[in-house]
UniProtKB/TrEMBL annotation:
<dbReference type="InterPro" id="IPR050210">
    <property type="entry name" value="tRNA_Adenine-N(6)_MTase"/>
</dbReference>
<dbReference type="InterPro" id="IPR029063">
    <property type="entry name" value="SAM-dependent_MTases_sf"/>
</dbReference>
<keyword id="KW-0808">Transferase</keyword>
<dbReference type="GO" id="GO:0008170">
    <property type="term" value="F:N-methyltransferase activity"/>
</dbReference>
<feature type="domain" description="Methyltransferase small">
    <location>
        <begin position="37"/>
        <end position="126"/>
    </location>
</feature>
<dbReference type="Pfam" id="PF05175">
    <property type="entry name" value="MTS"/>
</dbReference>
<keyword id="KW-0949">S-adenosyl-L-methionine</keyword>
<dbReference type="GO" id="GO:0032259">
    <property type="term" value="P:methylation"/>
</dbReference>
<dbReference type="GO" id="GO:0003676">
    <property type="term" value="F:nucleic acid binding"/>
</dbReference>
<keyword id="KW-0489">Methyltransferase</keyword>
<protein>
    <submittedName>
        <fullName>Methyltransferase</fullName>
    </submittedName>
</protein>
<dbReference type="InterPro" id="IPR007848">
    <property type="entry name" value="Small_mtfrase_dom"/>
</dbReference>
<dbReference type="InterPro" id="IPR002052">
    <property type="entry name" value="DNA_methylase_N6_adenine_CS"/>
</dbReference>
<dbReference type="GO" id="GO:0008757">
    <property type="term" value="F:S-adenosylmethionine-dependent methyltransferase activity"/>
</dbReference>
Amino acid sequence: MSEKQAIFTLMGGRVRMHRGRYNPTSDAVWLAAFAPRGMIKVLDVGIGTGGASLCVMANNPGTELTGLDISPEMLDECAQNAILNEHSVELINTDITTWRTTRTFDLVITNPPYFRGTPAKHNAHHNADITTWTRRCIARIRPRGYICIIISPDRITDVLGAMAGHCGDTEILPLFGGNPHMAERVLIRARVGTRGGARIWSGLPMNYPPILRDGLTIDDVLTRLGWI
């Protein structure tokens, strides 16, 4: 395989990835784009091969990134991708639903295993209890820290139900694919221990170049659009 084929990029070339058993999709870029700036200690739950984490680090120099995954193979590839991008990442082979720790973080990002059915060959986590997954993520966030999650629309009730009573200042952003009238993914960002209400944005197309090509954050885009 040639060098060109072996390496692909995200965020217009700002993040480089080895082509491997699982190659991040646009979901990883969108998740990272919703992460608020200024977060130092960041936990990526289900880090996989590191796509979302490396995008977060591209937008936030100085981030101290910790990643969890149940797949040693994924973590091995993630470590190589971190080296490729000249980043240092702490990787832990564990399951968020059983991880025993007192550590907390400024931000937790996660693209949870919301898909059901037969596990894929790349050994990703499938058929998880999304309510438990979300609650365990929230437990790892310091007071007034953030959680950012990308999920399929049919699982948002699991996520919001787990956040109830624990999170406030919730922001929901639908992402539209082939059907412009029905969301294909939903981004949710909330703050732990606050009491602010929810905002639902009108949504963006999943192939939106300012995010995928130019590597802007969603806050940057909403500001440019005059929505905030």
